[in-house]
Structure formats: C-alpha cells, structure tokens
C-alpha cells in the first residue's frame, strides 16, 4: 500500500481535488491557494511518511480535502447540491472502508460512485 505507484495514485487524487475546488469556486484564487496549500501538505506527508504513519491518516487528509473543495457550493447557498455531493462522498468512503468485508469490492464500488459525482460537477458548473 505504500508503493510509489500507490503514492502517485493518491497524489493525483489530491491534485484533482485542487482542480475541482478551483472550478467549484468559479476560479477564486484565494480558495484555490488554500486548497493547494492543504493538498501540498497532504502530498508531502504521503511521500515522506507513508511507511511510518498509520494508513488511515492519509485517508482522513484526503477526506478533508474532498469535503473542503465542495465548500464553494455550500457558500453559494446550493444546499441541495452540497448534500448530494456529501451523500456520494460518505457512501464512497464507507464502501472503501468496508473493502475487506466486501471481499475487495468496496474500492471498485467507490470508483463507480465517481460517475454521479462527476455528473454533479457538471451540474455545479452551469
């Protein structure tokens, strides 16, 4: 789980989180910089402490970044869209956490939930 390929995969999750936050904030430089700083910190921790840090800390940081990048939707007052993003994120996180119980199917099912999540991003961009 701490191979360079896994770290690279998770690094790009953090990078996409910043890009989504930029899009959802309608290009807010301040918000994007805050997201970039948080995610740069998370990437640093990922690459430098992956072998010694408890695995769940990586996913906690990832979850914080993913929820934070949806804040512009909430600040725009679109509670319904934010609740849908949150629902998908919570279910996806639960599936990922239950991966061992689901015989390895939790992680792929979490990826399936990315489809409605991306659709919501398109809805948010209108």
From TrEMBL:
Keyword entries, A-Z: Membrane, Transmembrane, Transmembrane helix
Residues spanning the membrane: 12-38, 81-102
Domain of life, per UniProt, equals: Eukaryota
Name used for this protein in its record:
Uncharacterized protein
The protein's organism comes out as Zooxanthella nutricula
